[in-house]
Amino acid sequence: MKIHVIVNPNAGRRVVQRNLEQIIGRLILDGTAESVRVTRTQNALDATRAAAECSAADTDLIIGCGGDGTINEIANGIMRSGEDIPLAILAAGTSNDFASSLHLPDEPEDFCQMVRAGHCRRIDLGLANDDTYFVNVAAFGMFTSIAHTTGHNAKNTLGRFAYYLQAAASVREQLVQVMPLEISIDDQQLSGDYTLCLVVNSKSVATFRKLMRKADVSDGVFDILLMKKLNIFSSAAEISRSILSGDFYKLPSIKYYQGQRITFSSSQNTAIEVDIDGERFGNLPLDIRVCHQALRVMMPESSLTL
């Protein structure tokens, strides 16, 4: 097996970075890997370029080591290459929503066993504005800027707790933000004042492990969570508890949908910034379509039906 490892050396979980060295060594020693080449990213889009340059002739498997943003870049590179090369994800970021949702291993022996077994599952990808693929989530509105405003050192030191702290600290400020939106979900038209919009592939988003309770990464639809303008009697404490517990959908202001084609636009004069897989993407309008089972992801057998 010819393996190309694409690793973000600045991803937060140093223990996983150390595990990667053991994984490479074991795969070479046991004969699973015929050859291994390693690309260490330094700048934005390095991972995309490295994956896009792979071909079936020189690469049987890409191992991506990094956070959600790095995996997003690799997925975009694979799609742009036109090759059907499988991806094995070694999650090394702070939240790792997609990897956590599918229980992908990060311990060396478990990861090596997954590679040896070679089980792959085709997963859906989202395509935003016809030019950028995403693996797990497109989001805007309330709390979606936390990934950008939480300091790098805090992420590395505190992990997920850094996000919880940031969310709790900004509740009051976020509650008053309202976005007038026009929304299309397949043939359904919606409009109104919203504070949060999530379009998600897996069950996990923003460190909340089972937020999207109906989600399936291979079902051809993405799950959509919309939070309408909050009642003035809703307390900051109530919203905080719902966010931290993952019980968004129990709030009366929450609506839950599934769809293959989702569009958002707004008459609001100020720019509404969109986040994709934890990274800044651009501003509304946003047009999303689901690319059904577009990417092969290596998984342990136990995750093939999650």
Task: Sum this structure up briefly.
This protein starts with a strand and ends in an 8-residue tail after the last strand. Helix 2 (46-52) runs parallel beside helix 3 (68-81). The chain has 306 residues and is α+β, with helices and mostly antiparallel strands.
Features:
Tumour Suppressor Smad4; 2 domains; 11-stranded antiparallel sheet; Rossmann fold; 306 residues; alpha+beta; 10 helices
Overall number of strands: 15
| CATH architecture assignment name of the largest domain | Sandwich
**Rg, Å, rounded:** 19 Å
- Mean residue pLDDT: 87
Task: Please describe the biggest sheet, giving its number of strands, its sense, and whether it closes into a barrel.
Answer: 11 strands, antiparallel
Number of helices: 10
Could you explain the architecture of this structure?
The protein is built from ten helices and 15 strands. It is α+β, with helices and mostly antiparallel strands and 306 residues long. The chain has two domains: 2-118, 3-Layer(aba) Sandwich (Rossmann fold), CATH 3.40.50; 134-292, Tumour Suppressor Smad4 (Sandwich). Strands 5, 6, 7, 8, 9, 10, 11, 12, 13, 14 and 15 form an eleven-stranded antiparallel β-sheet that branches. The chain has a four-stranded parallel β-sheet with strand order 2-1-3-4, with helices on both faces. The model is unreliable at 150-169 (pLDDT under 50).
